[in-house]
TrEMBL record:
<protein>
    <submittedName>
        <fullName>GHMP kinase</fullName>
        <ecNumber>2.7.-.-</ecNumber>
    </submittedName>
</protein>
<dbReference type="InterPro" id="IPR014721">
    <property type="entry name" value="Ribsml_uS5_D2-typ_fold_subgr"/>
</dbReference>
<dbReference type="InterPro" id="IPR006204">
    <property type="entry name" value="GHMP_kinase_N_dom"/>
</dbReference>
<dbReference type="GO" id="GO:0016301">
    <property type="term" value="F:kinase activity"/>
</dbReference>
<dbReference type="InterPro" id="IPR020568">
    <property type="entry name" value="Ribosomal_Su5_D2-typ_SF"/>
</dbReference>
<keyword id="KW-0418">Kinase</keyword>
<keyword id="KW-0808">Transferase</keyword>
<dbReference type="Pfam" id="PF00288">
    <property type="entry name" value="GHMP_kinases_N"/>
</dbReference>
<feature type="domain" description="GHMP kinase N-terminal">
    <location>
        <begin position="33"/>
        <end position="98"/>
    </location>
</feature>
<dbReference type="GO" id="GO:0005524">
    <property type="term" value="F:ATP binding"/>
</dbReference>
């Protein structure tokens, strides 16, 4: 779910030679993105100094790496005096990190994360929820899902094809409850590929608390309970205690969604 005011800021200074110096150190995907961008621009003899600021926690599956990569790509292009459209940014992001979130596109899109291309545009509307974020495994270093086998099989394909049809219809109808149901079912299906610690307990809490749905990160340890947007956070204090008693960390509340045009395939 898109959350306003969360993202990365990047500054890039060109320098002779191919070395990329990145601050803070350890931002390897961002450094790779800088190199990919320079080479794609024809600046093969240049490197530079990249400085990043990103308040998004890493390793939780919140898109921090794509946020860093996208900010880096834009900063490098700007330093070279070029602008890159969303399609170009998507292609470069996949080259840098092998799989990318579609943060470079406005609105809601169905996106091939490992190919870097949009399959369908679903408009500029997104559902409004009160989102309670939960770290199911505090202090974990996250998951490298790129090393996992791609789920295959007729049953799996049928399940996700049906879920895609439901998601498409839910965005077309601008139906938050239906979208929350799709998120819940998607999270359930994902357990056969990458099980999440405490998932069954969270699913039970979703039902008991009256949440509309449950979403999870496909590549991290974070989950989110989706409530009606008019829900008051203070009424959910007992729920926070029950989540913490499971050895999980509550990461706070945020509000998602904005109005826009309905979806179209």
């Amino acid at each position: 779910m898109p959350v306003p005011d969360a993202g990365s800021e990047a500054h890039f200074r060109l320098a002779p030679g191919r070395q990329i110096e990145v601050h803070p150190a350890g931002k390897l995907k961002a450094a790779s993105a800088a190199r990919v961008a320079l080479d794609s621009l024809g600046a093969t003899a240049f490197g530079g100094v990249l400085r990043l600021r990103c308040p998004i926690p890493i390793g939780l599956g919140l898109g921090s790496s794509t946020s860093d990569v996208l900010a880096t790509l834009r900063a490098v292009c700007a330093a070279w005096g070029r602008q890159a459209d969303a399609d170009m940014l998507a292609r470069l992001a996949v080259r840098a990190e092998l799989a990318s979130d579609p943060l470079m596109f406005d609105g809601t899109v169905l996106f091939a994360q490992r190919d870097g291309r949009v399959l369908e545009h679903w408009g500029h509307w997104s559902p409004e929820f009160l989102l309670l974020s939960v770290d199911t495994q505090p202090h974990s270093r996250g998951r490298d899902t790129l090393r996992l086998p791609v789920p295959r099989g007729a049953d799996m394909l049928a399940n996700y094809t049906g879920l895609l049809q439901q998601a498409r219809a839910a965005f077309q109808a601008q139906d938050p409850a239906a979208i929350a149901a799709v998120a819940t079912r998607s999270a359930e299906l994902h357990q056969s590929t990458v099980p999440m610690r405490g998932f069954d307990a969270l699913r039970a809490l979703r039902s008991a608390s009256g949440a509309l749905g449950l979403q999870i990160a496909h590549s991290g340890t974070v989950a989110g309970l989706l409530f009606h947007p008019q829900t008051e956070p203070r009424t959910l204090e007992p729920l926070l205690g029950r989540i913490r008693s499971l050895g999980m960390a509550t990461l706070g509340f945020s509000r998602t969604g904005h109005h826009g045009s309905p979806a179209s395939a």
